[in-house]
Write a structure and sequence with these properties.
- The chain is of the alpha/beta class.
- It has two domains: 59 residues, DNA polymerase, domain 1; 305 residues, Aldolase class I (TIM Barrel, Alpha-Beta Barrel), CATH 3.20.20.
- It has a ten-stranded mixed sheet. It has a two-stranded parallel ribbon with strand order 1-2. A two-stranded antiparallel ribbon has the order 7-8.
- The longest helix has 16 residues.
- The chain is globular and about 70 Å long.
- The two termini are 30 Å apart.
- Bound molecules: iron/sulfur cluster.
- The site of iron/sulfur cluster has 15 residues, from α4.
């Protein structure tokens, strides 16, 4: 397995077809080489230029001297009894991020991280507590899909998945660590590769970007991508959302929903819907009154609502609501005519459920240090270094 880049070679893994064309022209080569190399990298999973047999030997040797195909290092891989698989990946600089594969009856979803940590500090999310280090590069983002396919051996065309065997990746959700719209260019490049027929070829309905509401960048998204959209809402009014999702103070709900609607109008007209993510926190945002407010807020928004029972993490005062409260909240939404699903927890036994992801963020903001110190001082806060990281929520794509 290739390792993280430590030399001056150009890493081709995160380059889109257009970027590869420019690269080959800069080498004095024909631009059509881009499509050939793209297919080798993303459709065949090849990292050795010598194996790219439709390139001349001279070009293969040239590429081996100046370029490489390099993904993050896998630190660990764990399988849940429910088929969920979680990888801890070390990225350059030494921090770790996580990627999770979630199999369901009719799909296999890969949840991908976009940043090392997150600067937005949502109150229910332990990723925010870990602080922020840096954006992931496009190669580190698409590399998560590339590594997952290698891990399941799905690049081997001769290998057929046995009945009931997991491993086919049909959906990708940008809902791991980080706010994807704050790493716009790299996320867009990686999603471009996910959806490019010469690369991973996933449908635009099966690649989802989830945002907590960076409105100026959401307004730009339709110029660069037509992926599916999820909004991390978590509250139906600004007063409560300001507490849970602080970026709401800058871009309040009305502004966010208008922007989301503009995006949907631009990319797909009336056939596509926004996924609304709503983490249910006991006695905080799970009352029937708030369910009614949410139903009203979304009355004219083409959407489906994912209700995600909160997964507690150390030092959080929040609790998961009772099943009765969760179902009562769902009932209000359904009676108002909304599509509302309760997300079942997956991968809990390998700490891969929502709220259980544990990255290892070398934090520039020092927030993670304060958090770990508080953890150490807190009775029953859990083992040192086991801070859990709530990602954006895995949507049912
Ligand atoms: S929920 Fe998303 S935006 Fe908020 S802190 Fe966590 S990773 Fe960042």
């Amino acid at each position: 397995m290739p390792t993280t880049a430590v030399n001056n070679r150009t890493n081709l893994l995160g380059k889109t077809e257009a970027q590869l064309r420019d690269y080959f022209v800069s080498l004095g080569e024909k631009p059509f080489r881009a499509k050939q190399v793209l297919k080798w990298i993303h459709q065949a999973g090849i990292s050795d230029f010598a194996a790219m047999t439709d390139l001349s030997v001279a070009l293969r040797e040239k590429l081996a001297n100046v370029a490489e195909i390099s993904a993050p290092d896998i630190v660990s891989q764990r399988d849940s009894k429910d088929g969920t698989r979680k990888w801890v990946l070390r990225v350059s600089g030494g921090s770790c991020v996580e990627t999770v594969y979630i199999p369901e009856a009719d799909r296999g979803t890969l949840c991908v991280s976009s940043q090392v940590g997150c600067s937005l500090d949502c109150s229910f999310c332990a990723t925010g507590k870990q602080g922020f280090m840096r954006d992931l590069g496009a190669a580190e983002i698409i590399g998560q899909l590339w590594l997952a396919k290698h891990s399941f051996n799905t690049y081997d065309a001769s290998r057929e998945l046995a009945d009931g065997e997991h491993g086919k990746i049909t959906n990708v959700v940008m809902m791991g660590m980080g706010e994807p719209l704050l790493n716009f260019d790299n996320v867009v490049s990686a999603m471009n590769l996910m959806m490019d027929d010469n690369a991973h070829g996933l449908s635009k309905r099966r690649v989802t970007l989830s945002t907590s509401g960076v409105v100026p960048m959401l307004d730009k998204l339709s110029e660069a991508s037509d992926c599916a959209l999820a909004v991390s809402l978590h509250a139906p009014n600004d007063e409560l959302r300001n507490e849970l999702v602080p970026i709401n103070k800058k871009y309040p709900i009305a502004m966010l929903m208008d922007s989301a609607q503009r995006y949907m109008d631009a990319v797909g007209g009336n056939k596509r819907v926004i996924t609304i993510e709503y983490t249910l926190i006991d006695q905080v945002n799970d009352s029937l009154q708030l369910a009614q407010q949410l139903a009203q807020l979304l009355k004219n928004v083409p959407c489906k609502i994912n209700l995600i029972p909160f997964n507690p993490f150390p030092l959080s005062d929040y609790r998961r609501p009772s099943n009765n409260r969760i179902h009562a909240f769902q009932r209000v939404l359904r009676e108002a005519g909304h599509i509302a699903h309760i997300r079942t927890t997956r991968g809990e036994d390998i700490d891969a459920a929502c709220g259980q992801l544990a990255g290892e963020v070398l934090d520039r903001t020092r927030r993670s240090e304060r958090y770990r110190q508080a953890q150490g001082n807190s009775e029953g806060a859990g083992p040192a270094g086991a801070a859990t990281a709530e990602p954006h929520i895995f949507a049912r794509g």
